[in-house]
Design brief:
Elements (H helix, E strand, L loop, with lengths): L4 E5 L2 E5 L5 H8 L1 H8 L3 E5 L16 E6 L13
Parallel strand pairs: 1-4
Antiparallel strand pairs: 1-2, 3-4
Helix pairs in contact: 1-2
Length: 81
């Protein structure tokens, strides 16, 4: 058994098993938020703002940011600007 690692989800420290996925960290942090990310209602990024797939493994100290989307779907919000 390995020691847990600490990652940060929306600036909140979360302890997860080494090699845990983004999805697992979200489920520990907030299961409802994890469900929203799963159904596409929330955008998940790393500390640089790059999109993170939910199955991506995390390393110690990883920063995960989750933003709930105001709109759903694949429409380009600037398409009709």
């Amino acid at each position: 058994m390995t020691d847990p690692i600490r990652v940060f989800v929306n600036a909140v420290p979360v302890d997860v098993p080494a090699g845990a996925s983004v999805r697992a960290a979200l489920e520990v942090h907030d299961p409802a938020l994890a469900a929203r990310a799963e159904d596409g209602a929330a955008l998940v990024t790393d500390g640089r703002g790059l999109a993170l797939p939910l199955e991506s493994p995390l390393g110690a100290g990883a920063i995960v940011r989750v933003v709930v989307r105001a709109r759903r779907g694949d429409r380009d919000p600037d398409a009709h600007a």
